[in-house]
């Protein structure tokens, strides 16, 4: 097994461990930051009234779907960026001029 393959498998194992171990060993329920913040504000200032009301308050299922959509769009942008960067690096290493934007030659008299 090549060294890079071993390192990749160790990284995958570390990511799985970091994601899975808290689920196995942490007692209690995981709560969202919004709920914790609302509880803290209610405890510190019981007469607090929000300045604005939301225009659209989706159900839990719709909110979960919107969150998943946001994550998918973000992952798409990140994947696109890494794909472009990798292709640009490969084209530059191969010595082709396709890695740079099209620019007219310096002696072009248009």
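^ structure tokens above, recovered residues below v
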């Amino acid at each position: 097994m090549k060294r890079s393959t071993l390192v990749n498998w160790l990284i995958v194992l570390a990511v799985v461990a970091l994601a899975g171990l808290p689920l196995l060993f942490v007692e209690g329920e995981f709560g969202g930051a919004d709920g914790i913040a609302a509880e803290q504000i209610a405890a510190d200032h019981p007469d607090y009234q929000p300045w604005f009301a939301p225009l659209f308050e989706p159900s839990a299922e719709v909110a979960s779907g919107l969150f998943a959509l946001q994550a998918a769009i973000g992952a798409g942008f990140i994947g696109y960026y890494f794909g472009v960067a990798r292709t640009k690096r490969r084209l530059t290493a191969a010595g082709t001029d396709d890695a740079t934007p099209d620019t007219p030659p310096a002696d072009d008299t248009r």
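The mean pLDDT is 87.
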